[in-house]
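Thanks for the sequence, V.! I ran LysR family transcriptional regulator right away. Repeating your input here for the record:
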Amino acid sequence: MSIAMDDLALLLDIVACGSFSQAAARRGWSQPQVSQRVALLEAEVGAQLFRRHRRGALPTPACEAFLPAAQQALDALQRGREALQREPALPRLTLASLPSLSSVIFGPVLLALADAALEIRCSTDHSPAIMERLLTGQAQVGFVLRCPPMAGIQMERIWRSPMVAVVHNRHPLASAGSLQLADIANERLAPQYWGEGCDELLALIRAARRVPGPIHAVQPAGAARELAMEHGFLTFMPEVAVRRDLRDGRLVKLALSDLPLWEWEVMMAWRTGKRADAPLQQVLDTVRALAGEWR
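Predicted structure:
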């Protein structure tokens, strides 16, 4: 036989009220029912818990020793109930993205899934940290740059985005037509840093410069975009990150004819499992559908 949580609550009521009859009234039970439950509890713990007298009942030393454990059990049950009430009834997935991709991915995905029967949490981190979070279950879908495969993680390329030179539409070079690196080398430059390709770009710019000056490299994409939009800088960044600005004419892509093609290869990653996961599959399918618009 196991101890019922109601019996532990009854025990505390009797101690608080000082009598079986008052505890019975508090709980809406009959006094014989209370006496029977106490007898069963005493049999289960193997000790007498109360000494009854004409004016009520007093806890025995055994009861006093047992009370803290009873209270802890009831407190733990209450915490569990409160935790369940806080938990959403819908499945929850966490999406993790590179900071420079977050504005491209999170908004469209949340909009597409606005009425879906699931809850989404969005966070940003660097690619290695995102992969680790996928492995540990802290995130369910990650958006990273192409990296070596990892056991237990499925990866799928969702797009390649070229790195493009952009300026504000009021920049003197915005209407310049075809350009070469020498034509932009002396401008105020702040490329988004994307790795080895950016280092190669910076070396080429320095070699083409006729006057000395700093070349800033920044992260994330939002910082590079702001420098171009608000402060007159020329920046290099993934075309997908400023797709809407280019479409609406706020930024202009420069036509540079003598630079290599550098690309961001963006991957969607998730942890593989043996069991079907419908909410996860819904997110994956949604991203695949949206990826065509991002290319």
